[in-house]
Amino acid sequence: MSYKPSPRQTYKQRRKHTPFTSAAHYSFRQDWETNFDRAVAQAEALKAQGYLVEEGIQKGALTESQARQVARRLKEAGFDVQLIPVASWAGEKVVFVVCRPPKEGATMPQPRAPPKKKASDVKTLMKKFVQANSTDSESIDVDKQLREKGYLYDSHYTVAFLPRGQQGTDALAQWVRDIPLKQPPIIELDNTPTFRMLVRASKVKDRKTVIAFDSANKLTIRTENFQKVLRVFDDGRIRVYAVPGDDKPLIFYNDDGHAIAVARYMEAPTWDIASLTELLSKAQTKK
Hints:
Helix 4 (122-133) packs antiparallel against helix 8 (223-233), helix 7 (193-204) packs antiparallel against helix 8 and helix 7 crosses helix 9 (276-285). This protein has 9 helices and 12 strands. 38% of the residues lie in helices and 20% in strands. By secondary structure, the chain is an alpha+beta fold. It folds into 2 domains: 22-100, no CATH class; 114-285, Box (Proliferating Cell Nuclear Antigen). A hairpin with a 7-residue loop joins strand 7 and strand 8. The strands form 3 sheets. It has a 6-stranded antiparallel sheet with strand order 4-5-11-10-9-6, with helices on both faces.
């Protein structure tokens, strides 16, 4: 598998004729880092009231004027809306938009986790994988990839989804079938909304673009790709295996045996690495 770095996401000011000075960007970052934990705490409180917090945060922050437009459309559809301020940019607040479904909605009283105890639908997982790895210029040809490989993969061959029972004939397909029979997982983790929020914070707030799955920082992957795994599999238990070899992938399995393989990030600088163990520990304390 290969790895090609992609540019980091940045917050772009929507107002015209505003100078983008380094001091302004530094001030924004300081403001963001100072207020992020408070914003997360406010989000957790709203989640307990039925707001779709994680979905709102995953969509990213908006300027307040943009957020008001989104909020107006949501309110017209019957949703309750809250804006969570996290920073300021060029005199305008930057906020997360979270909403709560209408009370008359049939799914409102139901907790999110119990439906996930049913067997995961492979078509749904494939659709989510395609959404997570497609861009305006690059898309995944599902039928062609399944026909030729037996599984799906992104354009740079850094992330691949292998459904349970796949009959691919290449090395990756063989690893996915064999490795659970040959060795124990390097770690098991609970993929919860709190954990996903902490992973996002490690990237956005702490600027950690790599996740280490071992204390020696040898088993590392890009945080962005780990987030794709968590989003595709959603709530539930995940087992993680390391294919032997410095340049071999990590493979993630959900409870139903579907797998996502992720290319390793080689020789990541220490300051760029977040510890998976520490993130899992933080998730436990927030339960």
